[in-house]
């Protein structure tokens, strides 16, 4: 099925081998005084541990946000002084469930296409709150933004949940949007707002699952 195909990459990694290797690298880094390397490896181990989560498709929003934090910590070391980040979530949503790995591809897209690597004032803001009929997550950046014609084309693709070879939206965003709609229905998924030279916000609408 399409859902199985979208999740297959997860099973190409042997978690036990991965964690043991990362623990060894962290130990070697700490022993030699390489704190940045140790910090990156520790965050990478946490990133994979939450992301793989013993093959479970669903996760608590608290873990999804922690997964995003680990990813951001890794990129902050990689792109030193390029951006900072903030994560603010309503405590009432943290124990609710969602499908996993929905924020990371959105963050990756924001840093790849939005944040300016030649400046040091980039900000990634992640928020989560309860609405009347849904949970709403948002990933915002203060980067390049996009022209309105491109924005409309991207939004049309997301609403249809169908690939369009003429529009470069990125596999990660399409994957997240399609998995949300397959699991929860067409009324859920991603929405993009953007203004040139001001930034972009990707909203994630999810059902309320106890």
> What is the alpha-carbon Rg in Å?
18 Å
Main β-sheet description? 5 strands, mixed
Number of strands: 7
Structural class: alpha+beta
- Give the SSE string: HHHEHEEHEEHHEE
Q: How widely separated are the two ends?
A: 26 Å
- Give the amount of beta strand, in percent: 15-25%
Number of helices: 7
Task: Name its key features.
single chain, 210 residues, alpha+beta, two-stranded antiparallel ribbon, 7 strands, 21% strand
Would you write up a description of this structure?
- With 210 residues, this protein is an alpha+beta fold.
- The chain is 47% helix and 21% strand.
- The protein is built from seven helices and seven strands, in the order αααβαββαββααββ.
- The chain has a five-stranded mixed beta sheet.
- A hairpin with a 4-residue loop joins strand 4 and strand 5.
């Amino acid at each position: 099925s399409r859902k199985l195909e979208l999740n297959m990459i997860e099973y190409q990694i042997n978690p036990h081998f991965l964690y043991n290797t990362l623990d060894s690298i962290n130990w070697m880094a700490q022993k030699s005084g390489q704190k940045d390397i140790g910090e990156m490896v520790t965050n990478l181990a946490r990133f994979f541990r939450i992301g793989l989560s013993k093959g479970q498709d669903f996760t608590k929003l608290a873990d999804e946000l922690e997964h995003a934090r680990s990813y951001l910590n890794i990129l902050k070391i990689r792109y030193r002084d390029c951006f900072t980040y903030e994560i603010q979530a309503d405590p009432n949503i943290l124990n609710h469930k969602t499908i996993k790995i929905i924020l990371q591809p959105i963050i990756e897209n924001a840093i790849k296409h939005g944040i300016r690597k030649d400046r040091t004032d980039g900000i990634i803001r992640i928020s989560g709150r309860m609405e009347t009929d849904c949970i709403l997550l948002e990933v915002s950046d203060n980067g390049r933004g996009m022209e309105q014609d491109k924005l409309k084309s991207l939004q049309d693709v997301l609403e249809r949940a169908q690939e369009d070879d003429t529009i470069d939206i990125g596999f990660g965003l399409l994957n997240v949007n399609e998995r949300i709609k397959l699991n929860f229905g067409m009324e859920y998924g991603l929405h993009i707002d953007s203004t040139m030279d001001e930034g972009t916000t990707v909203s994630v609408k999810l059902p309320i699952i106890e």
